[in-house]
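Usage

Read records sequentially. Each one opens with the input sequence:
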Amino acid sequence: MGTATNISQIDEGLRSELQKKGIFVSSLEDLYNWGRRSSIWPLQFGLACCAIEMIATACARYDIDRFGAGLFRPSPRQADLMIVAGTVTKKMAPQVVRLYNQMAEPKYCITMGACSISGGPFKDGYNVLKGIDRYIPVDVHLPGCPPRPEALLHGLMKLQQKIDSQEIEKTAWYQKGLKREFPVPEFGPNGLNPPYNPEVFTPEQHREITVG
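and closes with the structure output:
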């Protein structure tokens, strides 16, 4: 096993001959990323109608287990992928952040459906978030209302491509002094305040209405 630099210097003909003999040359980083992307454990929870599509993806017809992500865990301590499937209300948002904080590193997040991305058809409602990315980082946004199981599988493959491209020495969870616990949102005068992503929080200015 060599480094990435040594692998690039190996002649392709020699590499092909080695493979015929059952010898494969790779790097520790490639093996590490291959193991992570092939053993994703999603968190077993759903919020609204998108969760039905997520359940269908895990069943025999679509079989998300073919991609190494079929082991849904009931505990965030054993999961590394959060699929935010459905509408996130302001009452539920703090619980979603708590679950994300309890997940094992390295962890990822997929927002499934228009509601979890931007509020969807309930965007103008007083009780619905305008996007869960105001409170936790999102790796893949999956639009649709609701997206079909094929779309969720496509989003999972995009996440696996992202995992494959990560470098061990530059990944966030290996950096010293990094705090990956996100603050739980609290209620303010204009609803929930997003401490993680405050630049996208632009509440409407209060306007006085004069009658008479």
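Summary fields computed downstream for this record:
- Residues 1-6, 205-212 have pLDDT under 50 and may be disordered.
- Helices lie at 4-8, 12-20, 28-37, 50-58, 93-102, 114-118, 149-164.
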